[in-house]
């Protein structure tokens, strides 16, 4: 992905408040943040990045004729920034398959479910409606399939009898804020890499890592 004599260059895309981005920045990882981009001018993530001195870019999807045109423009800005790794941290768009293909093994996403369960939206509601005993968050490499790329790590929480969507989401967000930095740290230290598939400590991943494996 990069030479070993410089930090991992990280770019992030986000559509919302940027809490996962803030957790990444607060973790003080041995990385260089080169760009934060968004499809929403009002995204809190842009303010989080600006406050941290990270370059930002906003592109409006309405300015482009097709979804593919927008994706190529935004991902082009990421490439121009020199990113080694692209982190989708609450980026709420389905990305054109041909654009994703150019970033195989170089883009990860954090998703609030124990994938392959509950791809897409409303994961907390669907977990409660199914009566699941546990819920969780996953980090996976991005592919053209929505939330369908190889999962590299997960964090789990118990579902309480009195949980609501809001309470479940709030408790899981704490784990997301631990999980995403842990995965980026593993990539930055070369413990986790892509070789046609996820490889951890030199061994192809047969199943997702538990967050405890990644934490000091």
TrEMBL record:
Presence of the UniProt keyword Transferase in the record: yes
InterPro entries: Formyl_transf_N, Formyl_transf_N_sf, GART, GART_AS
Superkingdom assignment: Bacteria
A Pfam entry, by short name: Formyl_trans_N
Annotated active site: 111 (proton donor)
GO biological process terms held by the UniProt record: 'de novo' IMP biosynthetic process
Primary enzyme class: transferase
Residues covered by the Formyl transferase N-terminal domain: 9-184
Similarity annotation: Belongs to the GART family.
Function: Catalyzes the transfer of a formyl group from 10-formyltetrahydrofolate to 5-phospho-ribosyl-glycinamide (GAR), producing 5-phospho-ribosyl-N-formylglycinamide (FGAR) and tetrahydrofolate.
NCBIfam families from the UniProt entry: PurN
Protein name: Phosphoribosylglycinamide formyltransferase
Gene designation: purN
